[in-house]
Amino acid sequence: xxxxxxxxxxxxxxxxxIYRRFCELEKVTPKTLLSWKDIPAIPAAAFKEFTLATFNPxxxxxxxxxxxxxxxxxxxxFFDTLLLYHAAIAPAFKRYLIPxxxxxxxxxxxxxxxxxxxxxxxxxxxxxxxxFGTAGNRRFYVKAGKLDAEKLLTDLRSVERKRPAMILSTA
Length: 171
Prior knowledge:
By secondary structure, the protein is of the alpha+beta class. It has six helices and six strands. A two-stranded antiparallel sheet has the order 1-2. Strand 4 and strand 5 form a beta hairpin. Helix 1 crosses helix 2 and helix 4 (about 85-95) packs across helix 5 (about 120-130). The radius of gyration is 20 Å and the shape is elongated. About 15% of the residues are buried.
């Protein structure tokens, strides 16, 4: 793990000007690094103040934004590809949440990826839905910021005691 962490740190340090400056202020460089535990974690607030990317952000395949609940300015996370993102979502979901089945009835108490395209959580749940949801299962119950509780209860009752189901939501 440490070898991989060192290589990723070096890559980020060399290609991300803002992160490099932060690391230099912390007095950590690829040459001074002794343990992966010493790799500086940039504060979350930096994503609201700076463009942090190792590539030209104008060429981003996707930009996810924070919800903006704590500040007016939203944090942004730039992706030049979503391949790694996809590769990380499905196997972890399968392993830790549904290790004993291929699909399950899914009920999402959040906005759909179509309604909130800049939400990484909605995007992830869209991937989960496409990968593990049953055929025709497109159940997102928050529309325009409002929960459709009546529809959720009706749909939950329709599968009650018939098929395994899972409700996914934010905290």
